[in-house]
Write a structure and sequence with these properties.
mainly alpha, Endonuclease Iii, domain 2, Endonuclease III, domain 1, 2 domains, 4Fe-4S
């Protein structure tokens, strides 16, 4: 049997984690689409917990896209200075706000989201998944990058775009919207750098478990 390929019925094998994490909200504590977009941009190379910490005060000052669009980088920076790469992120957010102008204009397609500054495919996939629109890709965050090769889904690589592309080739489009987040939650909770294999709902199909148990 081909280890990495369509000969595997991955949809059936991954069903336990799809069921376990079905509809689970992203760990970013957002209240609307505007907050989600801002927090996703801020969370690049930083932790969701850190973004959740600074978000309430930030959104008191900037409650919507309109308020952000009439601001400037110098005014924004003090509110996000505790996160990584805050200078670039301030630039990106002001540019996004000036482009989008109003909350209702936030795009929800891969093409239009990735056209915005600071939003790559991973961020766009997260926004689209949380907004409940049809998936055009698969979330490939650092957990998915670590866990997917471990399971035996794909060969190991640190390139998120490559991980996404390979997953899209072997997984049915019907599960694209949920599988990335399901693997991500598995990576956050169970399949950590030091994995808790005995607790894993898919250990029976996992290459790592078969080799290391």
């Amino acid at each position: 049997m081909d280890l990495f390929g369509k000969t595997n019925d991955w949809e059936t094998k991954l069903a336990p984690i799809l069921e376990k994490y079905k509809g689970e909200k992203h760990p970013l504590e957002y209240k609307n689409l505007y907050q989600l977009l801002v927090m996703v941009v801020l969370s690049a190379q930083d932790s969701d917990a850190n973004i959740n910490k600074i978000a309430p005060a930030l959104f008191e000052i900037y409650p919507n896209m309109e308020s952000l669009s009439v601001s400037n980088i110098d005014a924004l920076i003090p509110h996000i200075s505790k996160i990584r790469n805050f200078g670039n992120k301030a630039n990106w957010l002001i540019e996004i706000a000036q482009t989008v102008q109003k909350d209702e204009n936030i795009p929800l397609t891969m093409e239009n989201l990735t056209a915005l500054k600071g939003i790559g495919r991973k961020s766009a996939n997260v926004i689209m998944r949380e907004a409940g629109v049809p998936a055009e890709g698969i979330i490939a965050d650092l957990h998915v990058i670590r866990v997917s090769p471990r399971i035996g889904l794909i060969p190991e690589t640190q390139d998120g775009n490559k991980v996404e592309k390979q997953l899209m080739q072997i997984l049915s489009k019907t599960i694209w919207g949920e599988i990335g987040m399901a693997i991500s939650f598995l990576g956050r909770e169970i399949c950590r750098p030091k994995p808790k294999c005995e607790e894993c709902p898919i250990n029976t199909i996992c290459q790592y478990y078969k080799i290391n148990r």
